[in-house]
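Async update (no meeting this week)

Hi team, since we skipped the sync, here's where things stand on the single-chain job. The sequence we agreed to prioritize is pasted below, unchanged from the tracker. I ran it this morning and attached the output directly underneath so nobody has to dig for it. Comments welcome in thread, and please keep replies under the output.
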Amino acid sequence: MSEQNKQYAYFSLHGDFDPDAITARVGVNPTEAWRKGDLHPRNRLERKLSHWALHSRLSDDDSIESHISDVLLQLSMNEIEFIRLSTEIGGCMQLVGYFHDGYPGLNFSSDLVLGLAKFKLSIDFDFYNLWSDAREAT
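Output:
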């Protein structure tokens, strides 16, 4: 039996900034954050950019579209400031999928597209097809 697909989405900012200043501006604690120059815990190299991210609160077996909607809902809690940050720094909606059991497809409703546009977000897709004929034969 193959593993279940897992997917999630999150809002992210990357640049030369103080993550604590972002948190103060939006009044929301990030899911993860680091400063330019911090050491990466796995490879011990200095990070080249600061990072501030807000992840979906849903389970990783929910649809990508549902994860995006949840992140947009969180951004709506301080809509004006998140729009300003996206404009100033370049906000991105990161989409991540680990597909063990086929690609489920992706369908953005017009409301979802309008939400992404309202917050001036670019979109980054990190999708991984992990299905294997060899694994199924065993």
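Quick observations from my side:
Helices lie at 19-26, 64-75, 79-90, 110-118, 133-137.
The two ends are 10 Å apart (CA to CA).
Reply here if anything looks off.
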